[in-house]
Amino acid sequence: MSAPRTPFYPADAGFAGRVRASFARQKAMAHLGASLAEVEAGRCVIQLQHREEVTQQHGYIHGGVVGAIADSAAGYAAMTLTPADASVLTVSYTLNLMAPAAGDHIEAHGEVVRAGRTLLVTRADVFAYNDGEATLCATLQQTIMALANRPER
């Protein structure tokens, strides 16, 4: 049984469109072939299909790639709660890889743990899916800095 989720109230009613537009401008996610699957207040999901181009020598999705989509999923979860004229930057994160990222695809489920005015604490769990069965392969904890009055370029 997990703890109940804290309800979050976005400062910007158009948060979902702003997050989707930002994701569309992110060249790293496009390069990896990642897609933004879900955007809710305080939560985002990013998916990545298994392809040879993102694997390491054993055929698993590379840990750096796992970290990249976890970082983005948690960061975009934070962005859902910032004002329309703000942007976000990762200050730090810790990634624990717990199982190989093996399967059809992986998903990073990012969510806000605590939303302050300047710093937001987030987390992301990354699941590897094989024939519909999910395996937790990584967990990230992150600190995000909200940059007030600094929209993305």
CATH homologous superfamily descriptor: Hotdog Thioesterase
Would you identify the regions where 5 or more consecutive residues have pLDDT less than 50? none
Helix content: 10-25%
Tell me how many strands there are: 6
Question: What sequence of helices (H) and strands (E) makes up the elements?
Answer: HHEEHEEEE
CATH topology description: Thiol Ester Dehydrase, Chain A
- Radius of gyration in whole Å, from Cα? 15 Å
Total of DSSP H or I helical runs spanning 4+ residues: 3
Strand numbers in spatial order across the main sheet? 1-2-4-5-6-3
Summarize the structure.
The protein has 153 residues and is of the alpha+beta class. The protein has helices at residues 15-25, 27-32, 63-79; strands at residues 35-40, 43-49, 87-97, 105-115, 119-130, 133-147. It has one domain (15-147): Hotdog Thioesterase (Thiol Ester Dehydrase, Chain A), CATH 3.10.129.
Which helices and strands appear, and what pairs or packs with what?
Blueprint: H1 15-25, H2 27-32, E1 35-40, E2 43-49, H3 63-79, E3 87-97, E4 105-115, E5 119-130, E6 133-147
Antiparallel strand pairs: 1-2, 2-4, 3-6, 4-5, 5-6
Any overview of this molecule?
It is a single chain. The protein is of the alpha+beta class. The protein has a single domain (15-147), classed as Thiol Ester Dehydrase, Chain A, CATH 3.10.129.10. Helix content is 22%, strand content 41%. The protein has helices at residues 15-25, 27-32, 63-79, and strands at residues 35-40, 43-49, 87-97, 105-115, 119-130, 133-147. A 6-stranded antiparallel beta sheet has the order 1-2-4-5-6-3. A hairpin with a 3-residue loop joins strand 4 (105-115) and strand 5 (119-130). It is globular, with a radius of gyration of 15 Å. It starts with 14 loop residues before the first helix and ends in a 6-residue tail after the last strand. The relative contact order is 0.20.
